[in-house]
Structures are given as structure tokens and as C-alpha cells.
Write a structure and sequence with these properties.
heterodimer; A: alpha/beta; six-stranded mixed β-sheet; four-stranded antiparallel β-sheet; about 30% helix; B: mainly alpha; ABC transporter involved in vitamin B12 uptake, BtuC; two-stranded antiparallel sheet; 2 strands; globular
């Protein structure tokens, strides 16, 4: 394990390198899929985001970790339209965007898998995959009678699941409530992966899952990455994060305690930075 | 640290165990879970066989015709009630709305010289407006549907009584078009009314919309998990408002069927409509918690109620025991619903 020198021991150049200097080194927003710059969000006296910068590069898995209340959820919400930041800028593919609602972000190609999964338990898998964006049949059956293309959606749902290597669920007419927790998660992730064109956000996808199902979800994340879609993974779980993430954004006290990689730091060091036991230095 | 899991991995031992352990009871549970209308269908078939054995007159076309005619009005109102209950709501103003619409169309035509067709349309529009107002209160003021419709139950009843002066309008005072739904004709040995046929058509249309359109699917999603529906981008309030409005339209339309059935437009018609429609919906397998059930079940539920009434009467059972039997049915139906909801993969 590399020793982590206290911040005060760093030279200005080193501080710059790890993003602690002022101004920090930031990526050119034209090179990122998504960038947040100087994001501030307050709730009365509570500071949710304290001028946070964040970058998501093409094809990467960016983990966002942090203790409870560190601002990771607030950050994600500010990036995906669930919250409107008080100040700061969000860039998607280099163009500034102003998402007012999650639907704005969704129309821009950003799909979020919420912790609650946002699935309707009594509806079947195919219906849930296309919920809110159902396809109608072609011809007058669709345009006049407004009939849904049930077969087409079912086939496509099955195809999406197969593409992600989800083999444990075969019957798309199965109600979601008859699935296990991991299978439900797989449905929600498959839905996000199918409709996202920019990136996918996963909010604590493994929090409620067992070891085997967690492995399956991590595998899904790799599959999405292999499709070329970047992923933002919000998680508490260090082993999971270190297994799949390319870079790790550490949220702390509404700010960013730094961005590390699984190669540069160990999980123990990440936890130390996350909890403020140590401040960041490049390993 | 486990690495990625084989996507083609076979089901775990526990999963296979779970599959093998399906008892006949679990199979029934699964079957009912995927086809909630099956249990009311079984009840109806068994009841009809039993009543026929007790008294063969039950199976005569004349008896069946009467049951169908009796069922039509409550079945039609229960279609609207089903839509609302599917969204996890409830409508206590169903009877009051239908009566108000009926009084408006009858009085306009009989006392104000409005042409029959126009009076009919205005009456249906009043019913629709009543539903729309319920929907507005539910979605804009975020009041529970129970409270909203408990309030509008009184309001619509009072308006109806004030408007009509508490008086009935007789068949002869109304233009023919308002009595149209009572037109009788024979199909084979059965004597039906136009109302019965129209209600059957209405049920078919609404069932089609529920199962085949995205509006229907969104309605189920809103009742099933309103937060999930919101998160996937369904405009929840718009769906709810449309559901209450469509229900009002159905109640207004049913007012027309009601005039045909009753032969008069009386403020005291269908006093028990609220509880009877909820009974039909619940016996028909639609969950009071929303998100599951459908029109087919509701029609079966309404038929069960009237088949029980007629069948038990023909069996010479006391009136009060009939009421008791319906009560037992309701509790059994809700228990089955609770049991079905516990279904596991």
C-alpha cells in the first residue's frame, strides 16, 4: 500500500494533478459524454452540492461513491433532471443542456435505473420494458384502433434481454412480481440499456441483492460497457466498484474528495478518502 | 471476489427445487394470478349448475333473460367503477352521477321542451362533467378518491333532487329516444332489451381498450405502482383525470339504459348502486389495491350477484339469507385476491 501524504505536503503541481488545486484540471467538455461544472445545490441551509465538477468519458464506467449524505444522489439527480442545480453547468456531448425533468434527460438519451427499479409488478416483462413508450401496430389497427404491437414488443424485449446475456428469464409474458430481485434488476437494467443512447445511470443496483445476483448485475454493467455505452454507477459497495469501474468519483460533504482509479488506489484507501480519514494523493 | 457469472448458467439447485415443489394448489394460484377472471367464472358456472339442480326453472330462457336485464344497469356502472378501482381509487358517487344525468335528460325533455336527442346528449355530458370534477379534485387537490367521491356523492345527489324537485318523470312524458334502451325483442327463446345488448357492446369496447391500447396499459401501471409509472414518464395525473372522466361518461350513458330498464326517471332509482358496483368489481376478481383485474371479471361479478339473487329466490331461500350469501362472496373474493397476490415464481 502506498502511503498517502497529507494534502499540506503536496506541491501545487501535485494538487493540480489530483484535482485539489485551484483551478482544478478539467477535461475539455467536447471530449466528454457528460460534464458537470461548478454544480451547486442547496436545500435551505443544507448544502447538497458545493461546486462539484464531474466528467464522464466515452465507453467508461464511472463509479460515484460516498458516505450517506455525501451528495452522490444529489449529484446524479442534478445531472439527470431530477433536481435543477442552483448554479453550474451541465454539458452533454459538449453542448450545454438544461434538464428540467427526468423526462428531458430521457429524451436526450440518458436512462436511469432507480433504486426502486420503477417497474410495475403486475405487468409482464415486455410491458415493463416498453412502459411509457409503447409501440403501436402498423396500419389502421395501430393508427385508428390504437392497438399495441404486443408481439413486436415482446420479441424485442426478449432480444434485448438475450443481447445482455440474461438467460435466467425466458418468458417475456411473466409478471415482474414473479421474478427474483436480481431478475427484476436485470429487467430494469435491460430497459435502460435498450433505450439509452448516451449513457446509463445505475443507482445502488446491488444494494438489495445476494452474492450471485450481484455478480450477474456486475456482468450486465460490463455488457453495457461492451456495447459502447458509458455507465455511471452509484454504489456503497467497494468490492463491486473496484471490480467494474474505470474511474471512481469520491463524493464527500457535498463536494468531490477526488477522482481515483482502481489501479491507483486500494479499496481501503478509497474508504479512507471517502470518510475523510485521509485526503487524496495520487498513488 | 466473484467475477462475472456465466450468462448461460443453469438455474440454481434452489430454483429447480422451487419449480419441482409446485403443489396443485400452487398451480391453481399461478393460474388465477395470470387469469384473474377464472375464479368468478368458476363461481358462476358452479352456482348456475347448483341452482338448476335445486330448481330447474333457473335454467329456463325466461329466467336467464330476466337475470340479464336486471344485471345490465349495474354491470354498466361497474365498468366505470372497474376503471377507477384499477387505478387504486374508488367511486362512491357512481349512483349519484347516473341519477343526476338521468334526471337532467328526462326533465329537459319532459319539462323544458328540449328535443329528446339533445336532452340525451346533455345528460351524458353532465355525467361526464361529474366524473371530470371528481378527477380534478383527485389530481389537483391530491385528495383521496374515497373522500372526493364521498363528498360529490352528497353534492350530486342534492343537485339532482333540487333540480328535479324530487319528482319522477314517467315513461309517457319522455320522448321515445329516452325509452329506446327498454325496447324488447327476442333472440331465440330469450327476451332481451336493447340495453342488454348495448351494455355487452360497451363492455367489449372498454375491455378492448384496456388490453390493447397504451392508455389501458398506463391505467394498470398507475394503479399498480404510481411512483414507477411516474418515473417511466407516464403522465400520471393526466391518466387519472381521463379515467374519472371516462367513468363519468359511462355513468351518463348508463343513465339512458337505466331509464329504459326502470321505465321512469326517478330520483330514488338504484339507491344501492355504489355498493353493488363495488361488489361486482370485487367478486369479479379486480383488486381494490389497483393494478389487477378487468372488465370480463366485473361482468361475471355482476352476473354472479343477480344469479345468486334469482337462484336463491327460486330455491325458496329467505331474502335476508341472500344478502348474507353476497356478503360471504365478497369476503371470499377479497381473500382469494390477497392469496393470489402472494404468488411467487
Amino acid at each position: 500500500m502506498t502511503t498517502i501524504p497529507p494534502t499540506s505536503d503536496l506541491t501545487e503541481e501535485e494538487k493540480d494533478k489530483v484535482g485539489l488545486g485551484n483551478p482544478p484540471i478539467l477535461a475539455d467538455t467536447s471530449e466528454t459524454v457528460l460534464s458537470g461544472r461548478g454544480l451547486i445545490k442547496t436545500f435551505g441551509r443544507v448544502v447538497g452540492l458545493d461546486g462539484v465538477d464531474v466528467d464522464l468519458f466515452p465507453g467508461e464506467v464511472l463509479a460515484v461513491i460516498g458516505d450517506n449524505g455525501a451528495g452522490k444522489s444529489t449529484l446524479i439527480k442534478a445531472l439527470t433532471g431530477a433536481l435543477i442545480p442552483d448554479s453550474g453547468h451541465v454539458y452533454l456531448d459538449g453542448n450545454e443542456v438544461h434538464f428540467k425533468t427526468p423526462q428531458d434527460a430521457r429524451s436526450a438519451g440518458i436512462e436511469t435505473v432507480y433504486q426502486t427499479l420503477a417497474v410495475a409488478p403486475a405487468l409482464d416483462i415486455a410491458a415493463n420494458m416498453f412502459l411509457g413508450r409503447e409501440r403501436r401496430r402498423s396500419g389502421p389497427l395501430g393508427s385508428v384502433l390504437r392497438m399495441l404491437d404486443k408481439k413486436g414488443m415482446k420479441d424485442d424485449a426478449g432480444q434485448s434481454m438475450a443481447n445482455l446475456g440474461i438467460a435466467t428469464v425466458q418468458n417475456m409474458s411473466q409478471a415482474v412480481e414473479t421474478l427474483s430481485g436480481g431478475q427484476r434488476q436485470a429487467v430494469a437494467v435491460a430497459r435502460a440499456a435498450t433505450f439509452a443512447t448516451k449513457f446509463v445511470v445505475l443507482d445502488e443496483p446491488t444494494a438489495a441483492l445476494g452474492v450471485k445476483e450481484t455478480g450477474q448485475v456486475l456482468n450486465l454493467i460490463q455488457q453495457i460497457k461492451a456495447k459502447g455505452l458509458p455507465v455511471i454507477l452509484i454504489s456503497h459497495n467497494m468490492p463491486n466498484v473496484f471490480e467494474v469501474a474505470d474511474r471512481i468519483h469520491i463524493a464527500r460533504l457535498g463536494g468531490c474528495a477526488g477522482v481515483i482509479t482502481p489501479k491507483s488506489h486500494t479499496p481501503t484507501e478509497a474508504v479512507a478518502i471517502m470518510t475523510g480519514a485521509t485526503t487524496l494523493a495520487k498513488g | 471476489m466473484t467475477t462475472s457469472v456465466e450468462p448461460q448458467a443453469p438455474a440454481s439447485a434452489a430454483e429447480q427445487f422451487a419449480l419441482r415443489q409446485q403443489s396443485p394448489l400452487q398451480r391453481v394460484q399461478h393460474l388465477l394470478h395470470s387469469h384473474p377472471a377464472l375464479s368468478p367464472l368458476m363461481v358462476l358456472i358452479v352456482a348456475c349448475i347448483a341452482f338448476t339442480i335445486i330448481n330447474p326453472r333457473f335454467a329456463q330462457p325466461a329466467t336467464i333473460s330476466i337475470i340479464l336485464q336486471q344485471t345490465a344497469v349495474i354491470a354498466a356502472l361497474a365498468i366505470g367503477q372497474t376503471l377507477i378501482i384499477l387505478t387504486a381509487g374508488i367511486d362512491l358517487a357512481v349512483g349519484a352521477t347516473a341519477i343526476l344525468a338521468m334526471l337532467v335528460m328526462a326533465n329537459l325533455a319532459a319539462n323544458n321542451g328540449v328535443p329528446g336527442g339533445l336532452a340525451l346528449l346533455i345528460g351524458i355530458a353532465v355525467g361526464t362533467a361529474c366524473g371530470f370534477l371528481n378527477g380534478l379534485l383527485v389530481t389537483r387537490l391530491n385528495l383521496p378518491p374515497f373522500i372526493v367521491t364521498l363528498g360529490t356523492l352528497s353534492i350530486y345527489t342534492a343537485i339532482g333532487l333540487l333540480y328535479s324537485g324530487g319528482a319522477s318523470v314517467g315513461r309517457n312524458q319522455m320522448p321515445p329516444i329516452l325509452n329506446l334502451m327498454g325496447t324488447r325483442f327476442a333472440i331465440g327463446p330469450f327476451r332481451l332489451t336493447l340495453g342488454v345488448i348495448i351494455v355487452a357492446l360497451l363492455a367489449a369496447v372498454v375491455a378492448f381498450i384496456l388490453s390493447q391500447t397504451s392508455w389501458g396499459r398506463h391505467l394498470y401501471a398507475v394503479g399498480d405502482d404510481i411512483e414507477a409509472a411516474r418515473l417511466v414518464g407516464i403522465q400520471v395525473d393526466r391518466v387519472l383525470l381521463s379515467v374519472y372522466t371516462v367513468a363519468g361518461l359511462i355513468y351518463g350513458f348508463t343513465a339512458w339504459v337505466l331509464i329504459g330498464r326502470a321505465g321512469t326517471a326517478s330520483p330514488n332509482a338504484i339507491v344501492g348502486a355504489n355498493l353493488e358496483t363495488i361488489t361486482a368489481v370485487v367478486i369479479g376478481g379486480t383488486s381494490l389495491f389497483g393494478g389487477r383485474g378487468g372488465i370480463v371479471g366485473t361482468i361475471l361479478g355482476a352476473l354472479i350477484v343477480y344469479a345468486f339473487n334469482t337462484g336463491l329466490a327460486l330455491a325458496g331461500v329467505d331474502d335476508q339469507l341472500r344478502v348474507l350469501a353476497i356478503g360471504v362472496l365478497i369476503i371470499v373474493a377479497v381473500s382469494i385476491d390477497q392469496w393470489i397476490r402472494k404468488v411467487k415464481a
